[in-house]
Design brief:
Shape: globular
Largest sheet: 3 strands, antiparallel
Distance between the termini: 70 Å
CATH superfamily of the largest domain: Intergrase catalytic core
CATH class of the largest domain: Mainly Alpha
Helix content: 25-40%
Radius of gyration: 25 Å
Strand order of the largest sheet: 3-4-5
CATH topology of the largest domain: hpI Integrase, Chain A
């Protein structure tokens, strides 16, 4: 017999105790929701109101959903999450006749594939990007449809119609973004197949070449800095901290750069161990398994980093190399790294403009420059792959730079 979900709602301050309960009423059955509202907070424990779901069955368990303020009563957000949980309960029963909508499948996918479940979960940047793509593009158009009603050609035609507006002017959505939307939808269908909610993936199709076709061709070539542009940019830098950032091997991703701690460096053997990524102040695993490699550094970079070590007040092995020391960081001062997006926006880009470098720059510009200069120097593609820590040489060839003569 398939278990249901959501029924009785209780208001209290602790799921393990009836103490503080103010009211209760039934909503759905069997099973019930216990929702902890903004009851008095235990100051000693620092409790916050949270939402729990009790699932009836041979064994009753509590499932923590989150804070009440994040899941208002009768909100669509709460109902969508409940839909995903219902699928999770009924894992013994799905058949091809089960009416499962895209919204239900997406919520189930988020619970099992995009949750922050420790060191083995997907990187924060991956989880965040897929969540945004699904919420912004997929659910508004496909959310109410059953999975079996979504067809290959319909998705392909829909992707062609997508536009974005910048400065009030509509333009077709970039090929790379449309590819991300397609891949996110495919991930949901793969998940649904694995859980036996469906037996088909219209995004990939039954055979190679029969799925949704999207051109991910770049609209413009990524900006690459010339050597004569890099040198004055570094020389113009007054802060030794940022000088060290720019002198780091440019093949590092922004999240990898932000996540570096002093304990990661071996200055004697001139290498750095890549163990974590930090995006939007969220610490998580590196993007891919191939990223978990030793990264060589040259003696000049080591010299600059040691010079920064001498002046920074944060020298403990567990301290971030570029820890924020700003007063506005409050309690997080000295405990989290600087926001590299702020460094780029407020310092690096203005300095580049003053030097007459009018290219559209980001932290990834240094990664593109690094790979392009390596290939221009005649390095083998396998060497470039190892330094960029790509999983395959094909990714290196398809994604980064064109050879130059410098």
């Amino acid at each position: 017999m398939q278990a249901g979900l959501a029924g009785r709602e209780q208001v209290g301050r602790d799921p393990a105790s009836a103490e503080g309960v103010e009211k209760q009423f039934w909503r759905l059955a069997p099973g019930f929701v216990r929702k902890l509202k903004n009851a008095p907070v235990d100051s000693d424990r620092g409790d916050s109101p949270k939402v729990f779901h009790d699932l009836d069955g041979p064994i009753r368990v509590n499932v923590l959903l989150g804070l009440v303020k994040d899941y208002p009563e009768n909100s669509k957000k709460l109902q969508d999450l409940l839909a995903g949980l219902r699928l999770n309960i009924n894992t013994d029963g799905p058949t091809e006749l089960t009416a499962i909508t895209m919204t239900q499948a997406v919520e189930h996918y988020k619970l099992h594939e995009l949750a922050d479940s420790g060191p083995d979960c997907k990187a924060y940047s991956t989880r965040n990007r897929k969540t945004q793509v699904l919420n912004w593009w997929v659910l508004p158009h496909w959310g109410k449809l059953e999975l079996r009603a979504i067809k290959t050609v319909a998705v392909e035609q829909w992707l062609r119609t997508l536009v974005t507006s910048k400065f009030g002017k509509a333009k077709p959505l970039a090929g790379g973004t449309r590819e991300k939307i397609r891949d996110a939808m495919s991930s949901v269908f793969h998940h649904a197949i694995r859980w036996e909610f469906t037996d088909r993936n219209p995004i990939t199709g039954p055979v190679k070449g029969s799925g949704v076709r999207v051109s991910a061709k770049r609209e413009r070539t990524p900006e690459v800095l010339e050597i004569q542009e890099m040198q004055p940019l570094i020389a113009a830098w007054n802060s030794r901290k940022s000088y060290g950032v720019l002198k780091m091997p440019s093949g590092l991703r922004r999240g990898e750069l932000a996540g570096l701690k002093w304990e990661d460096f071996d200055f004697k053997n001139l290498h750095v161990s890549m163990t974590r990524s930090l995006v939007d102040q969220h610490v998580g695993p590196l993007k891919t398994e191939a990223s978990r490699r030793l990264m060589p550094i040259d003696e000049y970079v080591a010299h600059d980093l040691l010079a920064w070590y001498e002046v920074t007040p944060y020298k403990e092995p567990s301290d971030y190399v570029w820890t924020t020391d700003a007063n506005r960081a409050g309690a997080k001062r000295g405990k989290q790294p600087v926001w590299l997006s702020t460094v780029m926006r407020d310092y690096i880009q203005p300095t580049a403009r003053k030097l007459g470098i009018n290219k559209k720059m980001s932290w990834h510009t240094f990664r593109h420059t690094f790979s392009t200069l390596l290939k221009g120097n005649g390095e083998d593609v396998k060497v470039v792959q190892e330094l960029l820590r790509h999983s395959t040489a094909k990714m290196t060839l398809d994604t980064y730079g064109s050879p130059r003569s410098e």
